[in-house]
Design a protein that fits this description.
With about 210 residues, this protein is of the alpha+beta class. The protein has five helices and five strands, in the order ααββααβββα.
């Protein structure tokens, strides 16, 4: 492939970056990516259902629709993980607590806006984090509350994870219909209501994010 622009000129969502990261992890660690994730991430946090397709846990069979075959994705890095909602929240909890899996320095860098754009109307790309679809999600970002957001989709299932590090909250929403954006909106609604119960009001009137 040839570069379409100079590095850093602009950013777009691209799974190839995760695939390259998977190759780097395998090369540096000297073990397959799925095994590395199991030994250094999912097992230490007790997320035993969370595996790549190459290391699937037989104790957690995949849910399937009627007589359709289960969805196993053999791509790695940019996907291929299966998990339960509880274990997804355990992963989210890594960003709420001090732990030996992800360092504080890494979490700080991951949560920074990494996106670049040359289009004035592009308010989405500028909010990319490292591994996060958005680190300035509406309405939280507009209220001075950082929200780390990641979605995932297959042909049949959809997931959304939102983490509010400053408020010690994480929510995961999984569904068998729609798209992961709907899951993220549902998760945001849950978090707005949970904050309200703590006496924190989130203004949901629309405004463009600051560049």
């Amino acid at each position: 492939q040839r570069l379409k622009a100079d590095p850093g000129a602009y950013s777009v969502y691209c799974n190839d970056g995760f695939t390259l990261a998977e190759m780097v992890v395998a090369k540096v660690s000297g073990m397959p990516f799925g095994q590395f994730c199991r030994e250094y991430i999912t097992e230490p946090i007790g997320a035993r259902s969370t595996r790549t397709s190459t290391t699937a846990n037989p104790e957690y069979p995949l849910i399937q629709e009627k007589k359709k075959v289960p969805e196993y994705f053999y791509l790695q890095g940019c996907g291929g993980f299966t998990t339960t909602m509880i274990d997804l929240c355990k992963f989210g909890n890594l960003f709420l607590t001090k732990n030996d899996v992800i360092s504080g320095e890494s979490k700080a860098e991951m949560s920074k806006r990494q996106g670049v754009t040359f289009l004035e109307e592009d308010t989405a790309s500028i909010c990319y984090g490292l591994g996060w679809d958005n680190v300035h999600m509406f309405p939280f970002g507009q209220n001075g509350i950082q929200a780390l957001v990641k979605g995932g989709d297959t042909l049949r299932y959809h997931a959304g994870l939102i983490v509010l590090p400053e408020h010690d909250m994480a929510v995961a929403v999984l569904s068998s219909g729609g798209v992961s954006t709907y899951n993220q909106l549902a998760g945001a609604r849950i978090l707005v209501d949970a904050l309200a119960q703590r006496g924190i009001t989130v203004d949901e009137s629309w405004s463009l994010p600051e560049a």
